[in-house]
Automatic annotation (TrEMBL), chain A:
InterPro entries: ExoRNase_PH_dom1, ExoRNase_PH_dom2_sf, Exosome_comp_Rrp42_subfam, PNPase/RNase_PH_dom_sf, Ribosomal_Su5_D2-typ_SF. It is found in: Cytoplasm; Nucleus, Nucleolus. One of its GO terms (biological process) is TRAMP-dependent tRNA surveillance pathway. Residues 30-156 form the Exoribonuclease phosphorolytic domain. Gene3D superfamilies: GHMP Kinase, N-terminal domain. GO terms for molecular function: mRNA 3'-UTR AU-rich region binding. One of its GO terms (cellular component) is nucleolus. Its main location: cytoplasm. It holds the Pfam family RNase_PH. Keywords: Cytoplasm, Exosome. Belongs to the RNase PH family. This is Ribosomal RNA-processing protein 42.
From TrEMBL, chain B:
Belongs to the RNase PH family. One of its GO terms (cellular component) is chromatin. Gene3D superfamilies: GHMP Kinase, N-terminal domain. It comes from Henningerozyma blattae (strain ATCC 34711 / CBS 6284 / DSM 70876 / NBRC 10599 / NRRL Y-10934 / UCD 77-7) (Yeast). The gene is TBLA0H02430. The keyword Isomerase does not apply. InterPro entries: ExoRNase_PH_dom1 (IPR001247), ExoRNase_PH_dom2 (IPR015847), ExoRNase_PH_dom2_sf (IPR036345), PNPase/RNase_PH_dom_sf (IPR027408), Ribosomal_Su5_D2-typ_SF (IPR020568), RNase_PH (IPR050080). This is Ribosomal RNA-processing protein 41. It is found in: Cytoplasm; Nucleus, Nucleolus.
Automatic annotation (TrEMBL), chain C:
Residues 43-181 form the Exoribonuclease phosphorolytic domain. The gene is TBLA0C04350. Transmembrane segments: none annotated. GO terms for cellular component: cytoplasmic exosome (RNase complex); nuclear exosome (RNase complex); nucleolus. This is Exoribonuclease phosphorolytic domain-containing protein. It comes from the Eukaryota.
Length: 267, 245, 249
């Protein structure tokens, strides 16, 4: 969708005025409706499918593999994230930046202890993200999909002993029983700045007139790094006042707990 | 009965089916109404396939423009998590994928009334979320459903089916374990007729049993066509109800 | 241009291109040595206009003992505004790429992400609508980038974050050298893993990047980063004024 110059100017004025009016009538802290399905891929340990009201859709699969963590390099992670956005090349700036950010977020926040099996072996998690269609920046949608996928992940139950330094043995697992993977995954929010106003979860038409935007990570019930500024369009890019950074973070703090609770009890 | 017996003397396969039984077949159309002109979601056994049709639309590249008929483009995305064991590569531009794409394009070029849509592009995207044997036949069924949802004129249904041959016994609709141990044929059958629009054999198959194999396959394909038809009619009825409200 | 543009009417075949008298330029920029500016925390060497095939270029060498604890050297070259293939665009398209030097320190996706981030920053700095139908390409070559051995524990780890302010300085200088219109001189600062890029004497933030630390640091580090922004800006201005003076004499 491309808007004309006058349409953009109209949108800009309505969003930057006080009180502001969003094109779909939402308030500044309100999200668009989403639909989530979890646990539909039987060959994955966890999976989720999320559809936003504008038709953006994202599918996430979590698979695990037992690896020997004693041979890992210090900066090797136990979590690997791959991203495939349908219709975009793998080396396009958007795909590269988002996957680099996701790697940064999830390799740091998922606790290594929760994946450790024995003194020698660990699970390695593969988070594969497939974005089937997207209209605006999908980062927030992806993080919600990964959140619900990780929360529906079940890993095989270990039946062999924990300490295998003395006895050389491979970890063996229970035939049927699975253990729920216990994590509190981070969420990523996108906040746009228009004039002196800030809005969460921008739709495409709002992104096209944003002066600037911020990617804010929410982990462990507080705002935490990485935080980035991001330009969503070419024409309306501008600097913003430091107070707006503060207000964006307050906006995220206002709605993050609600979103987390909503995603956790979707079953 | 040993655990790895493909076909037991009692006539049962590993997953409990008899030789002429299909796997669970669940399909739905118009699943991605926002993003596409036609879409389908197909579950055939443990295969899960999303098909998205965009078009007929103006082609983004001049090279894709044909003055006399539509251009058909099919891109197949096999996700790294689709098999039980996660694959390391993204599968894009693999020879196997390119070959499957060409086979699908060749099959559907003849079935779509391409001359009705000159100077346009029909773009089909397929995402394989999970696979468990007979992939090609699943893709064919998914595309047929999505094309019908898009309202693109086709001559008839094309239903895909795979048949394997185990010790002179033909087995219908193979799963991935059966596919490894026996040679198989994939058929694309046109509607309720006995016409084939695709016959794909990669292995050795004795010629004298071929007729028998084809007969079983065509019967299976007709059943799949009926199952698709039931779902399409159910969907149409539902839509009509919504409209008349 | 040897590629004929088929979208335009080119006039009669015997038409001659319009030429202006060539300005007699002096080669003083070659003689100009790089200027070294110092204060107690920062040692910066700046140099511009030495990559002859580009429209503008800059060399930034920084030894930062106070904030990022890094010794960094990078070359920035600006190509453009130049014609782009394809459809009409009402404003210039900007593209910034980073390249590893001899030390293969950063992964390619990290460099792409940083390139994308810098592009986003400079979208609000360069007067892009001034250059319709054109592209501006900026390349940053990281010659070296190493951590200074310091006794006290440095608050920033060995990440790409610490070179961001130097990249911003480099690009700004190279843009000035190329004569591309910018809204203001952009510069940035780093404090406790927070990188801020400013324009308009620190009143407006144009970029923010944070990879570590916690939320409380953010607002507190703005002032520190602003101080560094002022330092960088003054250095750039001193350098540019000196250079002009050299030319004039």
């Amino acid at each position: 969708m491309s808007l004309s110059v006058t349409e953009k100017s109209y949108l800009y004025n309505s969003l930057s005025s006080s009180p502001s009016v969003r094109p779909d009538g939402r308030l500044d802290y309100q999200f668009r409706a989403i639909e989530i399905t979890t646990d539909f891929l039987t060959s994955s340990n966890g999976s989720s499918r999320i559809i936003a009201s504008d038709g953006s859709e994202c599918i996430v699969s979590i698979k695990s593999k037992v690896i020997d963590h004693t041979v890992l390099q210090p900066d090797d992670s136990l979590v690997e994230v791959t991203l495939d956005i349908s219709g975009q090349r793998d080396d396009s700036p958007m795909v590269e930046s988002i996957s680099s950010l996701l790697r940064e977020v999830y390799s740091k926040t998922i606790d290594k202890k929760s994946l450790t099996l024995t003194t020698k072996y660990s699970f390695k998690l593969y988070i594969d993200v497939l974005v089937i269609s997207t209209y605006s920046n999908p980062i927030s949608l992806i993080s919600m999909a990964i959140f619900s996928a990780l929360n529906s992940t079940y890993l095989p139950k270990l039946v062999s002993s924990f300490d295998d330094i003395e006895v050389e043995e491979l970890p063996t697992f229970h035939d049927y029983d699975m253990i729920k993977f216990d994590v509190n995954p981070p969420l990523i929010f996108l906040v746009i700045i228009v004039g002196n106003n800030v809005f969460i979860d921008p739709a495409l038409n709002e992104s096209e007139i944003a002066n600037n935007s911020l990617i804010i990570t929410w982990n462990d019930n507080k705002i935490s790094p990485p935080i980035r500024s991001l330009a969503l369009n070419d024409t309306y890019c501008e600097g913003f006042k430091p107070q707006l950074l503060q207000r964006s973070m307050e906006l995220v703090e206002k709605c993050a707990n609600g979103i987390t609770a909503m995603l956790q009890d979707d079953k | 009965m040993s655990r790895l017996e493909v076909y037991s003397p009692e006539g049962l396969r590993q997953d409990g089916r008899r030789w002429n039984e299909l796997r669970r077949f669940d399909c739905s159309i118009n699943t991605h109404a926002h993003t596409s002109d036609g879409s389908s979601y197909l579950e055939q056994g443990n295969n899960k396939v999303i098909t998205i049709v965009k078009g007929p639309q103006e082609p983004p590249l001049k090279s894709q423009l044909d003055q006399t008929k539509a251009t058909l483009n099919i891109s197949l995305n096999i996700t790294p998590f689709s098999k039980f064991e996660r694959s390391k590569t993204q599968h894009k531009n693999e020879k196997r994928i390119l070959e499957l794409q060409t086979i699908l394009i060749k099959t559907f070029k003849k079935n779509i009334l391409m001359h009705l849509y000159p100077r346009t592009l029909i773009d089909i995207q397929i995402h394989v979320l999970q696979q468990d044997g007979s992939l090609l036949s699943c893709l064919i069924n998914g595309i047929t459903l999505a094309l019908i949802d898009a309202g693109i004129a086709i001559y008839d249904f094309i239903s895909g089916i795979s048949i394997g041959l185990f010790n002179e016994t033909p087995l219908l609709d193979l799963n991935s374990q059966e596919e490894i141990v026996m040679s198989s044929v994939t058929l694309g059958v046109v509607g309720n007729s006995e016409k084939l629009s695709l016959l794909f054999i990669e292995d050795k198959l004795p010629l004298d049993i071929m007729e028998n194999v084809l007969a079983i396959g065509i019967a299976g394909a007709h059943r799949i066509k009926d199952l698709m038809d039931i779902e399409l009619k159910r969907h149409a009825k539902e839509r009509l109800l919504k409209q008349s409200k | 241009m040897n590629v004929q543009d088929r979208r335009r009417l080119l006039g009669p075949a015997n038409a001659k291109p319009l030429t202006f008298n060539t300005l007699t330029t002096s080669n003083e920029s070659d003689e100009l040595k790089k200027t070294v500016l110092k204060n107690e925390a920062l040692e910066v060497a700046l140099h511009t206009g030495f990559v002859s095939n580009s429209n503008g270029s800059s060399l930034v060498e920084v030894k930062d003992v106070a904030n990022s604890h890094h010794e960094t050297s990078l070359i920035t070259s600006v190509y453009g505004p130049r014609a782009i293939r394809g459809s009409f665009t009402s404003q210039a398209s900007l593209n910034i790429q980073l390249k590893n030097g001899s030390l293969e320190k950063y992964s390619s996706s990290q460099l792409k992400e940083v390139g994308n981030f810098l592009t986003n920053i400079f979208k609000s700095v360069i007067n892009l609508p001034r250059y319709a139908k054109s592209g501006i390409d900026i390349f940053i070559y990281l010659i070296y980038d190493k951590e200074i051995q310091s006794n006290e524990k440095s608050d920033s780890t060995n990440s790409i974050t610490s070179i961001l302010p130097h990249c911003i300085t480099g690009i700004t200088l190279a843009l000035v050298d190329a004569g591309i219109e910018i809204i203001d001189m952009a510069a940035g600062g780093i404090y406790k893993g927070n990188v801020f890029a400013f324009i308009k004497s620190g009143e407006e933030i144009i970029g923010f990047w944070k990879d570590e630390g916690n939320r409380e640091d953010i607002m507190n580090s703005i002032d520190n980063c602003k101080k560094q922004y002022d330092e960088y800006k003054n250095m750039m201005l001193t350098y540019l004024v000196d250079k002009e003076n050299c030319k004039a004499n």
